[in-house]
């Protein structure tokens, strides 16, 4: 797939073989990236891609999900660890624990630098182990906890986060830490045989080729904690092997779903941050506007469920009530519906295969009659070139998907800082992926995955000076 950008502020067109079903193409990046690869073996230099068919890692979850009866290994509430306890995923997980103390208990917490919130969490949930990635804050944490009767063990730095992830008493580890910083703790948890409640996208988008064979080796379940993949996971419960035909990811369409493509050259930062449905962080709001969030979810769905890219589609669903759907071999379509609430998918990763009762006070029930109607439309590939970039990177596999994600993250950062314009986000990602072609590794080590994540961010940043950005007046 080639983006034909004549200037940083003008998006011309994308050329397809089949204009009616672009998601099912085998597109190329503009540098001629071959999208079918295979494992070549050897060292870094010898594994640079010159192959035509890619071997795929095993899926994180098979095409069916059957509860393993009689496999419970703990007494009382289920013990969990949380990596990233002071972030959005971590705090929502603790809300669930607080509401269900008979179902879950916290044995270990890891945070970055929010000591005030971490201290409150320690006092309330009484974990055995606590880690702080920012080692300079350990003394502050110890001082704040000096009067706590049941003091936890405190381990500083990255090693502390890893110890939280592989705590011997934990059955499930919630991975809420952002970025490639979440890879090493997740790997440690898998090696320790812990099931993963997955909320860190880099685990699969960047680390899939390394993480998935490891999870299979240790017989570890990776359960998705984001709403779209949780919806798919819920819909495949009990399906017989081979019954899954197609995955349908729903997208809100973001800030520009009703904009004509011609206006995108005039987008300002404030425009991209006006999500039509809800308030989120700046980065994810921009990703929703560009639809990069959905492109990355396509890659995650491929790794999670083993679906071919030809069998993963995207549909715009403005109401965001249907969180995603599946189609079975007999053409039945199953969907999971609910008010947008991240706590539900998080809860299901913790309770699976059980369902936990939720009160109507804190978990409002869906009333379709009050809602009125649900609508759908096909995404515009010209408005959202991110989709075909993601499909192309996904088909390339290996380190390309991690490079795509890292380049997008850096490009969004530069856009928010008003160093590049909105349409430059797509150009930066495309050029970074194109540059990576000669370095693409199909079966990277963990160190190589992290290396190319850092490389992609650096290369993407270097493109700023070549884009001739002129600020758009407010």
From TrEMBL:
It is an enzyme of class 1 (oxidoreductase). It is found in: Plastid, Chloroplast. It catalyses: 2-C-methyl-D-erythritol 4-phosphate + NADP(+) = 1-deoxy-D-xylulose 5-phosphate + NADPH + H(+). Residues 222-305 form the 1-deoxy-D-xylulose 5-phosphate reductoisomerase C-terminal domain. Its cofactor is Mn(2+); Mg(2+). Transmembrane segments: none annotated. GO terms for cellular component: chloroplast. It holds the Pfam family DXP_reductoisom. GO terms for molecular function: 1-deoxy-D-xylulose-5-phosphate reductoisomerase activity; manganese ion binding; NADPH binding. InterPro entries: DXP_reductoisomerase, DXP_reductoisomerase_C, DXP_reductoisomerase_N, DXPR_C, DXPR_C_sf, NAD(P)-bd_dom_sf. Its EC number is 1.1.1.267. Residues 80-208 form the 1-deoxy-D-xylulose 5-phosphate reductoisomerase N-terminal domain. Its main location: plastid. Pathway: Isoprenoid biosynthesis; isopentenyl diphosphate biosynthesis via DXP pathway; isopentenyl diphosphate from 1-deoxy-D-xylulose 5-phosphate: step 1/6. GO terms for biological process: isopentenyl diphosphate biosynthetic process, methylerythritol 4-phosphate pathway involved in terpenoid biosynthetic process. Keywords: Chloroplast, Isoprene biosynthesis, Manganese, Metal-binding, NADP, Oxidoreductase, Plastid, Transit peptide. Residues 337-458 form the DXP reductoisomerase C-terminal domain. Enzyme of the plastid non-mevalonate pathway for isoprenoid biosynthesis that catalyzes the NADPH-dependent rearrangement and reduction of 1-deoxy-D-xylulose-5-phosphate (DXP) to 2-C-methyl-D-erythritol 4-phosphate (MEP). Required for chloroplast development. Belongs to the DXR family. This is 1-deoxy-D-xylulose-5-phosphate reductoisomerase. It comes from Cicer arietinum (Chickpea).
